[in-house]
Amino acid sequence: MDPNAYIPEMHAGTLELSEHSALFFWHVASQFQVSKPRTILWLNGGPGCSSMDGALMEIGPFRFSEDGSRLIENVDGWNKYANLLFLDQPLGTGYSKAEESLGANNLSIVSQNVVLFLQKYFEVFPEQKTHELYIAGESYAGQYIPYIYKAIRDTDPSIKVAGLLLDNPWIDPAHQYTSYMPFLFKHNLVSGEQDKKAIQQLHDECVVELTSLDVVYSDNTVCNRVSIYALQHFDNARTCFNVYNIELTDTYSSCGMNWPPGVEFMSPYLSRSDVRRAFNVKEDGRWTECSTSVSASFHNSKSPSAVSLLPEILEEIPVLLLVGELDYICNIDGLRSMVDNLQWGGGIGLRDSSETRLVIRGSDVGAVTSARNLTFVNLSKGSHMTPYELPYETRSVLYGFSGIAPTYNTSMEFDAPPTKQEKEKMISDAMYRAYYQAGFVALGVVGGVLLVVVLVSWGTGARSTFTFSGLMNALLHAAPLKNKPLGEYVNLQTFRRFGRPETIHEEDEEDEGLP
Fold it and tell me: 0.70 exceeded by the pTM?
């Protein structure tokens, strides 16, 4: 790890929902304090895929080095001016634990579990309950997030949600399934008249299937056949296009499952006993990116697709739809079709709103259309995981949406770095957190090991210290050197930071780019 890299304040562990079930979280504090703190609750999709994907490959403070040997700073992480809260859910996903038998699962059960988690989380961290809370995620999180918001509103309105961010969401199967054939043809992902006729036939069968249903659910076997055929007949038996980025190809039948670069490092790293110990989870066991048992528990789930909740939600809070144009699986055409047919706020879709070009750092990166609490942003070079390729651009859009970007205006231009005056306009009380809050905190990132030595584990009760006698003794009895390594102990290099917070005011950090 670069010794000059910024190491944020972090907390990680599990919160018990019952005797045999618990949800894992990783909280990353914002690098800068602002007058109105914001927390981004991030969820990955699947269903059953760990939010560590988002943490270590998209928006978090670290990413893997090219060879996977260590963690490096993600200078465009979303934690610059916002707190991040990564949550492994549903139960049984990632580091979260579940009953031995998951049984049936549905979106209502999942959303109630997230509400219960948040209630317990705010018992442990009551100071964070006053933050503006934004719920964000990608892919199948497009099903989770509207249900979670509704559950929060209906069961615990004391938890204030300021907005929703849906990144390439799977939210409206009726319009998204029927977008596959035209998207395939438009991008020449199918060649040969015979294959086109076959896909047309499968598409027609999908339309018949969807129109025969009183309620459209999030998964449909008949409609999945369009994609299966297209991938099987893309080029040859050994090659297919990447369903998450159509500019790329992959070996059949992976078709994107080997992407993005770095995904191959996730399981070996997160399965290591020292890493698991650092995250305050059981040290033995293997971390799995996506749980087949969780996914299977959602098969035949009878929860209506989340698009049915959007009109009501848009009457209450703003929603950002962030769409990468290179994604096939949750493609822009299907999401545009969904919006065009959605009725809310006395209108239909965004038909009466003009599109504005999105310019970031002097480059045209996409377009924005907005009306009646819905903002639709399409990024021309974005994939299914838009923050992976475009971390700065997506962070800029998020900050604009949440009200902390310096030049989020009618021209939709973001300049970098901003002037001092722009920063002063954006935040009135910014300060750099050079040290953590009063009291002992230690953290290290060495040899690829992320060590969160705010070592805490939580059950249903209050915060308690998690003691590893050897490591903690080494830390507590070492000579205090400000932000300097104390040496190695059990192969983990550690740092000690203590004392009252020291602040550097905005005029003292002119070189910092923002957002």
Answer: yes
